[in-house]
Protein 1
Amino acid sequence: MKLPVPSRINEILENKDYQRILENILSLFSLQGLNYILPLVTFPYLTRVLGPEKYGLVAFALAFIGYFQILTDYGFNMSATREISIHREDEERVSRIYSSVLATKALLMVLSFLLMTVIVFSLDKFQSDWLLYYFTFGLVLGNLLLPTWFFQGMEKMRYISILNIGISLIYTAAIFIFVRQPADYTYVPLISALGTIIIGVYSLRLVKRQFGVGFTRPSREDIRYQLEEGWHVFISTVAISLYTISGTFILGFFASNTIVGYFSVAYRIISIANGLLSPISQSIYPYISSLAVKSREEAIYFIKKTTTIMGALSLLVSFLIFIFAGLILYILAGTQYNQSVQLIQIMAFLPFIIALSNMFGVQTMLTFNYKRAFSRIILVGSVINIILTLIMAPFYTAVGISVAMVVTEIYITLAMYLYLRGKGINLLELKSV
């Protein structure tokens, strides 16, 4: 692959669009920097104070409530971001999108709350810790109030940085104050939810004050439109959850909370690594969506360049995780979680695989309206994962879940790459426009 020549680099540095993207990336990296520094303090603290059993129970609750977060988000983090990005110069259209998305999410949250209540009081596994699940559900309300998709679409990521830093600071301080022993495990999701709700309320005021966008009662047609726009992303997100959230959730039915704790710690470490590169993908998606409307060729070339960068960085991260898995685990979780070392090494190359699938799927297939194919690939991958999980979890517990996740991500990435090749888009071949 050829790197951009010096003249091209100068063009990039002088381009105002690229400067805005760089600003957004740096804003998110500053956010991620603090958001990783703070969890790197609370994560080791919680793993040691709660122990594998209670940490596993909290992780199970988060996985369970994660389904309702997905239902409430409904793919708006992608579809609404794209809509806002395309129409951000039209204040009236932006207000309509903003109001209809918030209203739709609120309706979906009410439905989620009712479903959760029925499940919690119908199954013995949930009844004994019903308060934990209700506290954890507060995260659904917090995510509803925090319009990350709006700021992404407006390409004003510094607001997200500031708001999320506020959430992290509240969470970190409260964890050390209120969580002192394993019996305090219910406070962990409650603290996280309250912090998100407080910042979410403030963010809605910020949208009104900084952008002049307020909530107005949307029409049924606007709500129906948002549901239709977000449908394919929603289906793919649900499918993705079947091999991310469901790994922890299904494991909770076949193994003890302690085993769930071992797996959750390993997967948490992998997730932290994945998040290191997420500012890049989050920042470029609105720009790619806008650029594709103007020039398909320029959008594809930009995606190719970013794929090269993301691939190299994520591969380096994966190698480091595999080599230093034991040391990383010892620093972050302590000796109670020694059984997690093998799980980390099995999943070590997920950051590399997921970085590529993000470029192939979200950044390219969704941008160029290959939504049906994107959803189909994710759904097939989810079926593969569920089959593997149900076969392997009863016999190999956490190891089986880890292997199933890696196999699924490899399939999805290869399927997306081959589909794009069939459409004449080879993201691993860099050519100038």
Protein 2
Amino acid sequence: MRIEQGFVAQQNPFKHVYTGIDKTRKRAVSLDVVREIRDLNLTKKSLVFARDIFLFSFYTRGMSFCRYGIFKKQDLQNGILAYRRNKTGQQLFIKREKTMQELIDKYDTFDTPYLLPVIRNNGVDEWHQYQNAAHRINRNLKQIGKQMVWISRLLLMRARHAHGPVIRPK
């Protein structure tokens, strides 16, 4: 009432603040790009491993690295990988596909309870091993992206947002 009556001057502190909703920039890569990544001829072991971890995330419907980086062999039973999302608490079940199993079988994890060789020294500062592996994988994925020229920043996150149908091996 006081503004309408002229007692107080109109002040709009948010006059120049944008309060609309912008479209989020797409972070996903297309299926064609995932196929190209899968088919890259990489010779350096660290790049091959980074690519395989990227593909594993894609094959598991965009599962976060914080989940599959610490999966134990016991989490895969009767051909089903079961886990609960940290963010939402949602229980998810993923059928083990041939492409996933090929990546699991590719790496020697005999001396570890983990499904993938992200954590190598069981019981020895596993959190730092996980963190170091995530940084190393993303650094190597960036190198792969540079090899592909048109991908500016290839990261594990892009596999998470690109999840789709399983791509069958050649």
Protein 3
Amino acid sequence: MDKVLVVFTGGTISCRVQNNVMNATADAPYALISRYEETQGGVVFETASPLTILSENLLPDDWKTMADCIRKRMDGSYSGVIVAHGTDTLAYTACALSFMLSGLRLPVVLL
């Protein structure tokens, strides 16, 4: 059975509307994994949440936080990494992580 690390960072995928305001929350993204497990299965997901911030508010130090989180968990047991990010600055984060994780021998997907 494949094991995948899912790194939640905030972004739209972690937002909930409360009092007509959309904010990133720490618990919202786990619904994504629950829905997958209900319909598909066959993959073990381990999660990490080093940040809960909207992607338009990310700074270069946050990219380092993401990369450090991923590197610290690499023990040879994962088939890949999913970074749940958000769309506003995804291209910038993808570029930064491509350099910061260049020695990693696993696929890293940002969504």
